[in-house]
Amino acid sequence: MATPGSGFWSFGSEEGSGDAENHGTAKAWCQAAQKFTGGIGTKLCALLYGDGEKSMETGAKDDLGSAEKTPACTCNNKPCSCQKADINYAFLHSTDLLPACNGEITTLSFLQDVMDILLQYVVKSFDRSTKVIDFHYPNELLQEYNWELTDQPQTLEEILLNCRTTLKYAIKTGHPRYFNQLSTGLDMVGLAADWLTSTANTNMFTYEIAPVFVLLEYVTLRKMREMIGWPGGCGDGIFSPGGAISNMYAMLIARFKMFPEVKEKGMAAIPRLLAFTSEHSHFSVKKGAAALGIGTDSVILIRCDERGKMIPSDLERRIMEAKQKGFVPFLVSATAGTTVYGAFDPLLAIADICKKYKIWMHVDAAWGGGLLMSRKHKWKLNGVERANSVTWNPHKMMGVPLQCSALLVREEGLMQSCNQMHASYLFQQDKHYDLSYDTGDKALQCGRHVDVFKLWLMWRAKGTTGFEAQIDKCLELAEYLYNKIKNREGYEMVFDGKPQHTNVCFWYVPPSLRNMEDNEERMNRLLKVAPVIKARMMEYGTTMVSYQPLGDKVNFFRMVISNPAASHQDIDFLIEEIERLGQDL
Amino acid sequence: MATPGSGFWSFGSEEGSGDAENHGTAKAWCQAAQKFTGGIGTKLCALLYGDGEKSMETGAKDDLGSAEKTPACTCNNKPCSCQKADINYAFLHSTDLLPACNGEITTLSFLQDVMDILLQYVVKSFDRSTKVIDFHYPNELLQEYNWELTDQPQTLEEILLNCRTTLKYAIKTGHPRYFNQLSTGLDMVGLAADWLTSTANTNMFTYEIAPVFVLLEYVTLRKMREMIGWPGGCGDGIFSPGGAISNMYAMLIARFKMFPEVKEKGMAAIPRLLAFTSEHSHFSVKKGAAALGIGTDSVILIRCDERGKMIPSDLERRIMEAKQKGFVPFLVSATAGTTVYGAFDPLLAIADICKKYKIWMHVDAAWGGGLLMSRKHKWKLNGVERANSVTWNPHKMMGVPLQCSALLVREEGLMQSCNQMHASYLFQQDKHYDLSYDTGDKALQCGRHVDVFKLWLMWRAKGTTGFEAQIDKCLELAEYLYNKIKNREGYEMVFDGKPQHTNVCFWYVPPSLRNMEDNEERMNRLLKVAPVIKARMMEYGTTMVSYQPLGDKVNFFRMVISNPAASHQDIDFLIEEIERLGQDL
What we know:
- 2 copies of one chain form a homodimer.
- Chain A has helices at residues 26-37, 40-49, 104-125, 138-144, 156-168, 188-200, 211-228, 243-258, 262-265, 284-291, 312-324, 347-357, 414-419, 452-485, 511-514, 520-540, 568-582; strands at residues 178-179, 236-240, 273-278, 299-302, 328-335, 360-364, 389-392, 405-409, 491-493, 504-508, 544-550, 553-559.
- In chain A, helix 6 (188-200) packs antiparallel against helix 14 and helix 16 (520-540) crosses helix 17.
- With 585 residues, chain A is α/β, with parallel strands linked by helices.
- Among the domains of chain A are: 94-172; 202-451, Aspartate Aminotransferase, domain 2, CATH 3.40.640.
- In chain A, the strands form 2 sheets. A 7-stranded mixed β-sheet of chain A has the order 2-8-7-6-5-3-4, sandwiched between helices. In chain A, strands 1-11-12-10-9 form a 5-stranded mixed β-sheet.
- Helix content of chain A is 39%, strand content 10%.
């Protein structure tokens, strides 16, 4: 149940009131608060009025409003918080919030109470004694609560309850033992920045409506290009809604660069194109090819070595083969940090091949890009500076809240030529400021969410060195895990050697399988182990880690660490938990 | 400047302390607060511990931490807020926040102080006495503040200052006099929901990591399909990053429906396709065609009547023409609510033509979809129920925070077939729950932001009837504006008759042009009027409204109202302001 008036402002508590005889009355609260604090009322007024601004022209009387429900007070603070203690959300609706006439107090109180719910969730997220997940099957969850949408409004009390219930069943993605995805953790500055972004509620297409954010995108993308190693940070780029879309952009731009006529004439007017990527690359390369009318058959999967790295000689062979058949190789998408193995393709060798055959080199560093922040680990991306485009998702290894994905392009202006449609109703050419800041027409999107601010603010708060420390720590933890299990009874590594990224891939082999011959029966039993352990993890809610098959390798665990909250003890816990949940299998 | 400790918890103010002799010491604050309130400390502990949960295993000692900076207190509340009064952000960094050991107090205090900044901005946003924008040219804004990213971290004090500065130069998109875009306003429940979404920080691809949000997407999309009029709300859909991407999805699915082999074989394997849309339609239809390898030349623009509605006879003529030339018409994208005129294409007539020629009918109701919530206005979309797909952006007319765009598809399963790539590392087939809830593979994106919660929570708070009231009010205001200016001296309407949506398009003709002949010179002067008035509006910061040319019509104002905060007085103000700023031109 939502407790009405449970915010930080609610003073009229059951015990210990400094003014017992007036307890519970709004006036008493108002006076007492001012006596004690120099004025919570003053504080609220400062919030309402800002820094020294004085009056506030309230909404016209014909606005949606509820003036009757919040009668005027006679204290000296206008508007004052005297009614706060009287707020009963059971009788209030969203129409009582701003822009309702006299809606300030109710609004601030409501938002503060939502914030209390969120702060409580934040603290719990980091608490190892709480569950990562309170798991319910879909049909159970549908029955657990009434989630339906109806004609009639709910009260604000019910709205607060909705918030609590939603978070009750949410996954605590910031929990130190949540390892399920490449994006884990909950960064406090990033969270604050995302709240601010929501509050500013604008759109990235023009400087006109997002002046600061447009400039911050410019500053941040330039800095990212510097980290990649492009001279002076020159080039182009955009924040896009996720790595899959960033990779699709790269493919789109590569095609346009080679055959600009494709924009008007379509694929019908150009030769048959081929793209190359490794068999361990992300599925978005094929997804992009399907969408762009290139077709998945035109994505050639290059063989990988046992560590999941693209084999350059196989790439060159397939390129030559394609050319002999009259196809046009237009794109190589190398991967820096594959999804499952965390492998880094040999970018220098791939760059040489791309140069030799004049092919656009894209690097999908969605997962591995973060290592560019680390002096110790960035060598793994050597050669990325020779790429024509790079996907880099700060929402993964850098812990920026979802979503934050950048596509960086070495050649300036290409994105604009490729995507612009010159809509005169959005990009007027006779505005009074420098139109080079109206960057919206280089995007596939029209409206575009502000994804830059959380990255920018986190970068300010941590500095590059702070990101470095965070990332180095995650890699150190992965090595700790690897060292602990590589020779431990009951574990088999999926590939040999120290992990290059934080991906540690392994099978847990329960005692019953340990002495079995390595035959089909064993495989058939082994492939069921990880799913069962995972299901149990979720039902207990103690931790979450991903598993999958890959090629001829049956289901194995893929542990990844991108959560700065994780510690050695959490790694130890994971091992113990896998053994606890899997020993009877 | 950020004021350290300026949150709601900061009590040790300069005046009126109830315990003057201990003023300023942490202990005094702690005791006094408990005496007065029954415990702000208790409140904080409740936040920290949640509902009755007791202990909290703090992070391992090897974590990033700052235990030295927050020494243990001897009061009875563990962890307590006694140090709050001592928090000096000038000496603290992001590494002092959670997951830092003993980081709870600092974290809660910091987040609360960020929240205070946001609440102040929210209140100001609705205050008509504040500016909509504090405009600075890009080069000024770059010099106004140091926005650069560096190696070294900033203090939390500087981070709070960054937040204040960012908001200082932001556009107040919730301001009652901000009319610049189709998305305006700041809904309090939507904002709260977006904060919650940020805090939950998860991803839409699987039920596993977003159980509640996946279910809410299911519930909400079904409800939207019901509003469209598809029996039982059956069908499919997705929330996508904006209307342009939603329209691109429609084109992608329409192509796949007709030629499923395109997914593997690409455009080379299928005949030359043609899409049809009106000359007033959104530029994203062409943008999508360019991206998908169809080419912009294959988008045929159908003529509109004087109100901006597609002329069905012209559509049919162009379809027949295309077929005669051997092209394959595969998509008609009708518009319900055009960007500039707010026109509704005649959907019933278009549906008949699509049926006759077996063409996919898409309705881009990004802007007009909201009218489906209104019993008074939904007739304008009659025929939408016959569409194969519909784009509907609740972030426009329904005032949901950015971004919230839905693509609805009548045929179930088609999106999945079109886009799925079966990545085994994401969509494992041997999970322990009903896999039909792992809907991520029907998206073009891999990671996908949670855009549904803010719409769902607003719908719960308002009910359908609340959205209806809000939308009806905006339409009523548009009519009010139209009635005020249609015969007013100095105004010329761009098209005759009452607006069908909230778009009111007009020229303001300054006195110097009123008696001029309607010749080229007048046009050349008139086209400069709106840009100058707009530039002045932004420099004064009093209001913002969009202008653009269209076809042979020179720059005119396009007023739109989607902001529930706007009132009759704001419309009056706009008219006065245009006249004030334009009378000398």
